[in-house]
């Protein structure tokens, strides 16, 4: 079946990120000059503007900063899933990223829930990083 | 020149707004150029100025200065600027006009914003694109923007401070009451808190009436020096100042609910003038979403941090209450003119021309908008 939801168009900035996800690796850019870790993967450091970045393996662990339940078909391909959740995850490494939380009924989602990343192969070429609850002590 | 010295040296001397209600609905032949020209003509009439006197032109970006100046026969313009067509530029455009006048770049600056969102069937809310080309880190997960982002931040706010959706409803309900006193406001039907709660969610916990309207219309102002203003038709409304504070992080999800940004704008805008929250007679807010009112009230220090939802209850923000907010109905109930209609309302209130919704002895009005570029302004009359 054809995947009709939005997919990223790869650029020189984020190709490594998405290619790693396809291999089920969650990587983040880190500045070789100042050590800052940032997201989305711009080609330069948001702190010191260095272009010398390296990629580190993210722990995949984080917590839900906030969430919303989408009830309006704004985004192509998502209409059939409504209502669905979107969470903003605060990663252990610092950056925040949008994703979906899987494995919890929407009405039970709360900020500060500990979560962990997993890989969702949505097409042959693209893997999205989604999250599921993690046991607070199961780190 | 310090901010305190700059304050009061320029004034808004003419305003005009479209009849937003009459324009509600779609007309494929309606143009932003026509709406803008109409508003500019009316604003000049309001000021008692001829268009030949206009020598500065600032646009809200949807109609560029060049085609507008041709169409309107503005043949002696010395200063032109197009602002980006974004819903947060009104204080910036106003300060630019004031600076141009103060620095002798122009004597009479016309500013306008003109929108045909409804007739052009513009769709809002799609995610993506916020971070630059190719970096689609929101819409791949079904995230829309920016209402969904405010909604997401509100879940965090509730987690930290409590408060209910019913309490939030005091904002749209208050603005609807104000709109019912404004013949050009689009939303004239009464709305109770039950009506608010019965409306569907758009991005839960925000509902339909937490979102601003999408409509057509235009607003224009004329700005000149305080000195020239004395000879014109209307009571001058002084530009006290404006402030902005952008942090550009997380695309509308401000992690402290704009507390830092508001405190900074307050320091820039109010402190130099010795104006405190108690001196403000009304607030006009860029109510793209209801929560912008809540967070600004806390950020500027009207309400204690985390207690804004309690603070706004029992008519406190309604006409007749302690701090009337968005007295024309705001963007939730009057019209979405990207904050330009709120400034027009401020001018009416400060002149004493707001009719049935007039705030008695209204002398100082604070405006704020909380978005990617938070901004604020202070207008007053002597």
Overview of this protein structure:
Chain A is mainly beta. Chain A folds into two domains: 10-57, no CATH class; 59-139, OB fold (Dihydrolipoamide Acetyltransferase, E2P) (Beta Barrel). Chain A is built from one helix and seven strands, in the order H-E-E-E-E-E-E-E. Chain A has one helix at residues 15-22, and strands at residues 27-31, 53-57, 61-70, 84-91, 96-99, 114-121, 127-133. In chain A, strand 6 (114-121) and strand 7 form a beta hairpin. The termini of chain A are far apart. In chain B, helix 11 (259-269) crosses helix 12 (291-299). The longest helix of chain B has 16 residues, at 32-47. The two termini of chain B are 21 Å apart. Residues 129-133 of chain B have low confidence and may be disordered. Strand 3 of chain A pairs antiparallel with strand 5 of chain B.
Tell me the radius of gyration of chain B: 20 Å
> Overall 3D geometry of chain A?
globular
**Main sheet of chain B?**
9 strands, mixed
Tally of strands of chain A: 7
**Greatest chain-chain interface?**
A-B, 40 and 38 residues
Terminal-residue CA separation of chain A: 37 Å
Mean pLDDT of chain A: 94
Going by helix content, strand content and strand pairing, the class of chain A is: mainly beta
pLDDT below 50 for ≥5 consecutive residues: which ranges of chain B? 129-133
Strand portion of chain A, in percent? 25-35%
Helical proportion of chain B? 25-40%
In CATH, the topology of the largest domain in chain A is named OB fold (Dihydrolipoamide Acetyltransferase, E2P)
Please sum up the structure shown.
Chain A is mostly beta strands and 139 residues long. Chain A contains 1 helix and 7 strands, in the order αβββββββ. Chain A folds into 2 domains: 10-57, no CATH class; 59-139, OB fold (Dihydrolipoamide Acetyltransferase, E2P).
